[in-house]
Amino acid sequence: MAIGNFNKRNHQGPMTDMNMVPMIDVMLVLLVIFIITAPLLTHAVKMDLPKASSSANITKPDHIQLGIRKDGSLFWNGEAINQDSLPTRFAAEAKKDPQPELHIRADRQAYYELVAQVMSRAAKSGIVRIGFVTEPAIVQ
Question: With a threshold of 0.70, does the pTM exceed it?
Fold first, then answer.
């Protein structure tokens, strides 16, 4: 049995490949452990719940259309109003159940300050659902 060889032609260099077998073995052992323990991690209590057929009672709240033009004029659902009547109208609408949504339709050229004032008055009165209505962009 020859331990070494003095032939320089058949001399092998150092091993440059990484031995992947131990890593694959560890991975497979971990996979088996996770497969066994995964069903044990669910803490569900099985219950036999009663069955009943009914339809969902979904009540959609009304919405308020508040238009703001660039000249500062305000429109409450199409009716022209002034800024001084906003807090009383907002307070009356905030008391309703379900509370209506406020849809602000501001003109493109309207001052941001006026829009911010309207939103501030609505929030102070208790209106919590405020949204902006925009025109959809035309994709060409």
Answer: no
